[in-house]
C-alpha cells in the first residue's frame, strides 16, 4: 500500500447540488479551496432551482452516499465533515450512524430547513431527525435565527442557543441575516458558557448561498487545525467579502464570489481592454485570454461610437 504520511488534509462535504452554483456543494468546494484545503464532495440531493427559488428536490440513495463516504475516508486524510442539505430522513439516520463511527471527526452542520426564497426543503420526519439526533452529534451548528427558533422552540438567540447546546451540540453560531437592522449581528455560543458577537455592515442585496459559504469556510478552517473562535471570525470576514463582491448571475438573488482573491476577477478575461487612437479616430478593442500564455492577443478596430454607445463599454460588474 502507498505511503499515506504526506497526504494533504481534506474536508468531506455532504450536501445538495444547486445547478446555479450559488449554493450547495459548489459553494462548499469553493469556500474550502479559498481557505486552502481540498473538498471531497458527496451529493446528498439533486435539485431543480435557480436564483428565484427551488422547484424540485430528488434525495439520493443513502446506500450510494454511504459507499462514497466510506471510500473517501479509506483513502484520504479527512479532517472534518461539513453537512448541508440532507434531503431525506433515511439519509439523516445513516449520517447519525456514520458520525458515531468516527467520533474524532468534527461535524459542522448547516441545518438547511428552507431555500433562500423561503421554501421548505424538509418534511416532518427529516426535521425531527435533525432536531433530535443530528444536532447533538455536531461540533458546530450554524443556523440563522429562524432556523434556530424552529430547532429550539425558543425566540431570543441566547435561549435558542441554550436549547441547542443542551442537545449535545458543542458550539452554535446563530446568524442575524434575517433581522431588519442596519448591521448583521452573529452570535457564537459555546458549551462552556462562552459568547462572542460580531457585527457586520449589512450589504444591499439578497444572496444565494451565503449560509453554505459561511459554514464551509468555518469547517475548512477547523479541518486545517484552527481553534473555533478564530476560525469563526476569519470565516465571517471571508463570507462578507464574498458577498460584497457578489455577481448577478440570475434575475433574483446574487451569487457570492468566493474566489474574489483570484486575479483576474470573475469575467475579466472576456472584458475587452479599450484604447483610443486619435489619429485614426477608432476604438481599438484588445481581447486577451487567460486560457494560456501561448494564446496571442487579438485586436480589431471598429468605428468610433458616439458617447451614448461608448457607455456600453463600461464595466457593468458591481
Which key phrases capture this entry?
single chain, 318 residues, UDP-N-acetylmuramoyl-L-alanine:D-glutamate ligase, 2 domains, three-stranded antiparallel beta sheet, 12 strands
Brief digest:
With 318 residues, this protein is α/β, with parallel strands linked by helices. 32% of the residues lie in helices and 24% in strands.
Structure description:
The protein is of the alpha/beta class. It has two domains: 9-244, Ribokinase (UDP-N-acetylmuramoyl-L-alanine:D-glutamate ligase, 3-Layer(aba) Sandwich); 268-313, no CATH class. It is built from nine helices and twelve strands. It has helices at 24-35, 62-75, 89-101, 124-134, 145-152, 157-166, 210-223, 228-244, 307-310, and strands spanning 9-17, 38-50, 53-59, 77-83, 107-109, 140-141, 171-174, 183-190, 195-201, 273-277, 282-287, 298-303. The strands form two sheets. The protein has a nine-stranded mixed β-sheet with strand order 3-2-1-4-5-6-7-8-9. Strands 10-11-12 form a three-stranded antiparallel β-sheet, with no helix packed on it. β8 (183-190) and β9 (195-201) form a beta hairpin. It starts with 8 loop residues before the first strand and ends in an 8-residue tail after the last helix. Mean pLDDT is 86; it is low at 272-318.
Give the arrangement of secondary structure elements.
Blueprint: E1 9-17, H1 24-35, E2 38-50, E3 53-59, H2 62-75, E4 77-83, H3 89-101, E5 107-109, H4 124-134, E6 140-141, H5 145-152, H6 157-166, E7 171-174, E8 183-190, E9 195-201, H7 210-223, H8 228-244, E10 273-277, E11 282-287, E12 298-303, H9 307-310
Parallel strand pairs: 1-2, 1-4, 4-5, 5-6, 6-7
Antiparallel strand pairs: 2-3, 7-8, 8-9, 10-11, 11-12
Helix pairs in contact: 1-7, 3-4, 5-6, 7-8
Amino acid at each position: 500500500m502507498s505511503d499515506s504520511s504526506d497526504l494533504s488534509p481534506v474536508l468531506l462535504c455532504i450536501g445538495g447540488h444547486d445547478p446555479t452554483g450559488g449554493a450547495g456543494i459548489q459553494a462548499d468546494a469553493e469556500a474550502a479551496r479559498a481557505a486552502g484545503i481540498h473538498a471531497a464532495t458527496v451529493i446528498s440531493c439533486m435539485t431543480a432551482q435557480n436564483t428565484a427559488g427551488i422547484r424540485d428536490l430528488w434525495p439520493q440513495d443513502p446506500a450510494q452516499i454511504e459507499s462514497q463516504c466510506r471510500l473517501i475516508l479509506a483513502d484520504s486524510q479527512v479532517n472534518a465533515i461539513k453537512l448541508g442539505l440532507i434531503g431525506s430522513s433515511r439519509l439523516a439516520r445513516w449520517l447519525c450512524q456514520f458520525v458515531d463511527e468516527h467520533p474524532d471527526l468534527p461535524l459542522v452542520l448547516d441545518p438547511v430547513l428552507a431555500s433562500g426564497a423561503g421554501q421548505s426543503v424538509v418534511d416532518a420526519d427529516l426535521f425531527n431527525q435533525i432536531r433530535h439526533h443530528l444536532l447533538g452529534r455536531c461540533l458546530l451548528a450554524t443556523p440563522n435565527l429562524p432556523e434556530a427558533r424552529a430547532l429550539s422552540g425558543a425566540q431570543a438567540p441566547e435561549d435558542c442557543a441554550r436549547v441547542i447546546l443542551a442537545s449535545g451540540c458543542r458550539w452554535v453560531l446563530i446568524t442575524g441575516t434575517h433581522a431588519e437592522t442596519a448591521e448583521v449581528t452573529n452570535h457564537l455560543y459555546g458549551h462552556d458558557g462562552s459568547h462572542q458577537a460580531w457585527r457586520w455592515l449589512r450589504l444591499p442585496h439578497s444572496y444565494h448561498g451565503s449560509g453554505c459559504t459561511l459554514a464551509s469556510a468555518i469547517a475548512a478552517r477547523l479541518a486545517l487545525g484552527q481553534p473555533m473562535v478564530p476560525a469563526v471570525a476569519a470565516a465571517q470576514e471571508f463570507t462578507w467579502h464574498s458577498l460584497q463582491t457578489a455577481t448577478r448571475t440570475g434575475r433574483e438573488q446574487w451569487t457570492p464570489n468566493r474566489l474574489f482573491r483570484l486575479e483576474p476577477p470573475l469575467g475579466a478575461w472576456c472584458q475587452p481592454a479599450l484604447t483610443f487612437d486619435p489619429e485614426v479616430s477608432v476604438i481599438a478593442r484588445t481581447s486577451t485570454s487567460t486560457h494560456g500564455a501561448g494564446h496571442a492577443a487579438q485586436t480589431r478596430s471598429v468605428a468610433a461610437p458616439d458617447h451614448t454607445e461608448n457607455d456600453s463599454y463600461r464595466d457593468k460588474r458591481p
